[in-house]
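seq/struct pair 1
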Amino acid sequence: MITAFKRKVTVKSGGLVSLRSNKLKPGTKAELIVLVEPVENSVERSMTGSDLLKSGLVGMWAERKDIGGSLEFACELRKEAEKRSR
């Protein structure tokens, strides 16, 4: 049987989140799912070109032998998508 706990908590320094319950026994296996509420009045900014370069996304497939040029690869993906039934 699965037991669920729902608690409103505040994230502490370093991203620390605490959950305590007398129903949680030492050695019990658990899976934790964290749902984060947006911070009021916060504005998410998009990535800049510099952010993108630092992210490791640019060039991540450079060593793949199964992908030719990016333009050719994108054209093939589009062709495959068009063939799919709706």
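seq/struct pair 2
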Amino acid sequence: MMMFLTIGMSMVTDAVWQNRVKGLLKAELKRRNISYKMLAQKLAALGVHETEQNIANKISRGGFSAVFLVQCLDAIGCKNLQVSPD
């Protein structure tokens, strides 16, 4: 099912939202110089077992759950996340 949100005069699709969330997570990983392998290790320390390849696939798709996003942010020590650009 394709969902749309109207902002001003433009429609925002699920794909746009997925790219935005993917970009947020990738930026936080890059900011901290954390690879997918390191993320897998940090997630495992929290009891979340994901392989490096599974993480790469999820992030590549951008369609991962909010739970996965928060688990990743917690694992890398991200306490604040700026969602919209200034």
